[in-house]
Design goal:
heterodimer; A: alpha+beta; Heat Shock Protein 90; 3 helices; 34% helix; 28% strand; globular; B: alpha/beta; Transcription Regulator spoIIAA; five-stranded mixed β-sheet; two-stranded parallel sheet; 4 helices; 7 strands; 42% helix
Chain lengths: 141, 110
């Protein structure tokens, strides 16, 4: 038997800034309950904000309401977050790293994605059945 | 966003509180821009009471720095915690700003 159970948590939000705040707030409560260190929480919170803001700003080209699912799996030493949305296909791994581009020519979103890529241990994207599935994972303390 | 301000030796010191995130960035930008439009030429952002910054916060700092540059002003940052400093370092924004370890050092050089 493993003495390191995985705790799962799901957050479902609509595609609006208010809902992003709500997701972050819920996630922070979850992290506090799990006694995750402030240093780890900072990076995970940053990843969540950058990814969700990117999704609500760029994923949906219609004016309809969409649902985003955030699936969190946390063990004693690792936390994984999966972000699932039904917006246009977008692989953030194709965004060029910002230091290769002069400041004036940088596109919004580039710096945020780069921070997430650098701060997380795992950053992967797949497109399945019309959904974007972005997974990030990080060792936590 | 909640913020305190004071002036020392013609330097306007702004101390935003809490999180400079996507939610607070616009309100911070509006308040700081108003000070600059009203004549503040030397602006120092004191990070002591700031616990979080995201790329939305970084973008606002760039906007303020460019605005002050156009007005031949000076813009600097001081007293970041380690987490925030890491965000500046990874993003390369560390090189775009003057970052001081203390207010005294900033005031001496601005």
């Amino acid at each position: 038997m493993s003495n390191d159970p995985v705790k799962s948590y799901e957050i479902v939000i609509k595609n609006s800034p208010e809902e992003v705040s709500k997701a972050i707030y819920q996630f922070l409560s979850f992290c506090n309950e799990e006694k995750i260190s402030l240093a780890s929480i900072y990076k995970l919170r940053l990843a969540m904000e950058e990814i969700l803001v990117n999704i609500i700003n760029y994923s949906f080209q219609d004016k309809n309401q969409h649902e985003l699912l955030i699936r969190i799996n946390s063990s004693a030493d690792n936390l994984t977050m999966e972000f699932i949305d039904d917006g246009i296909a977008f692989d953030p791994l194709t965004v060029p790293d910002p230091q290769d581009i002069p400041l004036e020519q940088r596109k919004p979103g580039g710096v945020g994605i780069y921070l997430v890529k650098t701060m997380m241990d795992v950053f992967k994207y797949k497109r399945i059945d019309g959904n974007n599935i972005l997974t990030v994972s990080k060792k936590i303390t | 966003m909640e913020m305190s301000q004071r002036e020392v030796n013609n330097v306007l010191i702004l101390s935003p509180k809490g999180n400079l995130d996507f939610n607070q960035a616009t309100s911070f930008q509006e308040t700081a821009t108003a000070f600059i439009e009203n004549g503040a030429k030397k602006v120092l952002i004191n990070f002591t009471e700031l616990s979080f910054i995201s790329s939305a916060g970084l973008r606002v700092l760039i906007v303020l720095a460019k605005l002050l540059q156009q007005k031949n002003g000076t813009f600097a940052l001081a007293l970041m915690n380690d987490q925030i400093l890491e965000v500046f370092s990874i993003s390369g924004f560390e090189k775009l700003f003057t970052i001081y370890a203390s207010e005294e050092e900033a005031l001496k050089n601005m």
